[in-house]
Amino acid sequence: MSEVRELQDVYGRRYRVGESDRELLGRSRTWITWLAAAAMLAAGVQQYGFGALVPALTRAHGWTFGEIMLSLAAWAACQSGVVFPAAWLRERGRLSAPAAMTAGATLCAAGLATLGHADSLVTVFLGYSILGGFGTGLVYAICIGAVLAWYPDRTGSRAGIVSGAFAYGSVPFVVLAAAVPSVRPVLLDVTAAVVLVVIAGAGALLRYPPRHWWPATPEPRAWALDRTHNRRPALRHYRPAELFRCGTTLALYVVVVLAAAVLLFDLAYLATFVAARSGPGLAAAAMASLAAATGSGRILVGRLADRLGRRRILRFALLAGGLAQFVLFHSGEHRHAVGLLLGVTLAGLGNGCCYTLLVGLVREFFGEESAAQNFGILYTAKAVGAAVGIALAAAVVTAHGFMGAFTAAGTLSLTAAALSGRLSRPGRPKSLLPTP
């Protein structure tokens, strides 16, 4: 093993050099990407597959649409709320990656099994919303943190692969749930078993590098000055306690709230909206396409953001997501299958990609020292978005129908696009000219 040294660049960032990924892991760090992606592939079924289960749950138990949707909102709140505590505990050595992933695997499996066998809403809230939400949040925190730690030089593209897998995993589940609704309990039991094995297996092999680890190439101080790969470094490192002392945090938090609200609205309501007009077949195709477009879009956006700038790509993504809501309503209302699938693709490429961009924006705005924890804090905006996009949307659908709901969703996304244009790095002076 080479001599281990710690270097510092002109921005104050530290780099631990001298240990290769093969020396630490016994293989390339690409191994970590695929382990994290496999775990996220399994964990995402609870979010992206839920909409396909709603019609079967209402028929089987007589629960109202609003009651079932509240369980998804509670799940999203639990899932997003556990990401910061998990990152905080892991960075302090109180929670190992394998232990967190094993716990996450067990809770995710419990959440899925609950949806297959629960005969009361209380059981759904306890098993799916709370246990399943906490389990998914643990997996999400550990996998995103692993990408941040092992790919400090290529965060955007690798985060895109891992977060994209979170959406991809539900595609076969959505298709099967729509094709054979009568075997829902069996399908969920089998899915729960697969999820348990995949996440626990990936977690047993997942490891983190030493703090501030840097790969053998590129040379870190040269990389720090290379505007091709390191476009806008943070002006200083912000600890979690300092995050909300700057205006950029609040603006970025609101953007994530609005983007999350629109994405969760589509996940919660699109299948029911389409099924009532065009049947369950097209509804399943729409949900599967939404998950596939979101997964593909996150990979594409992760690569483009490193080259073109995250704020610019974020603005275009939110604009696409806003336009998609109007396309979805018009196409669904008039039973235009091609237009509906186009709208679904825009929605997936738009609001569904914001979490991938958030990973890079956190590092760009607030530095690398506490990147995983700072991401966890901003990710809690998803819980607020769930209240807006699922709970409040139910009242809008009841009072104004789906036209009012899709119009409101499109407006929220366009508002987020406008607000994203005002984001700037904290600590940046408003003017380089002296005050007269």
Number of strands: 2
Largest sheet: 2 strands, antiparallel
Order of H and E elements: EEHHHHHHHHHHHHHHHHHHH
What is the CATH third-level topology name?
Growth Hormone, Chain: A
What is the 3D shape?
globular
**What's the gyration radius in Å?**
21 Å
| CATH-assigned homologous superfamily | MFS general substrate transporter like domains
Which strand order do you get reading across the main beta sheet?
1-2
Mean pLDDT: 88
Query: Spans with pLDDT under 50 lasting ≥5 residues?
Result: 431-436
Spatial separation of the terminal alpha carbons: 58 Å
Our estimate of the beta-strand percent is: under 5%
Architecture (CATH level 2) name: Up-down Bundle
Number of helical stretches of at least 4 residues: 19
Structural class: mainly alpha
Structure description:
By secondary structure, this protein is mainly α. A hairpin with a 5-residue loop joins strand 1 (5-8) and strand 2 (14-17). The protein is 74% helix and 2% strand. It has a two-stranded antiparallel sheet. The protein has helices at 21-25, 30-43, 45-48, 50-61, 65-81, 83-91, 97-117, 121-150, 155-168, 170-179, 184-205, 220-225, 247-278, 280-308, 310-333, 337-349, 354-366, 371-379, 381-420; strands at residues 5-8, 14-17.
Summarize, please.
With 436 residues, this protein is mostly helical. It has a single domain, classed as Growth Hormone, Chain: A. It is built from 19 helices and two strands.
Describe this protein with a few key phrases.
single chain, disordered C terminus, 436 residues, 2 strands, two-stranded antiparallel sheet, 19 helices, mainly alpha, Growth Hormone, Chain: A
